[in-house]
Amino acid sequence: MTDPGRATLEELRGIDLFDELDDEQLALWQEVAAIREVPADTVVAEPHQPSVGVFLLLEGVVQGLIFEAGRVEQVGRQVAPTWMGAITTLTETGFAGELRAETDVRMAVVEPEDFTRLALSQRSVHRRVMRAVRIFSARWAAREQNRERLASLGTMAAGLAHELNNPASAARRAAADLAEALDVLASTIGLFVESGMEREQAQELVMMQREAIERAASRNSLSTLDAADAEDDLLQSLEHLGVAEPWRLTEPLAAAGVDARWLARVATIAGPATSDAIAWIAASLTARGLAAEIAESTDRMGKLVKAIKAYAFADRGDLVETDIHEGLETTLVVLSHKVKHTSIKIQRDYDRSLPKVTLRGSELNQVWTNLLANAIEALSDSGTIEIATARDGICARVDIADTGPGIPDVIRDRVFDPFFTTKDVGEGTGLGLDTARRIVTERLGGSIDFDSTPGRTVFHVWLPLDGASA
Question: For the chain, what is the largest distance between any 2 Cα atoms, rounded to a whole number of angstroms?
Answer without folding.
Answer: 118
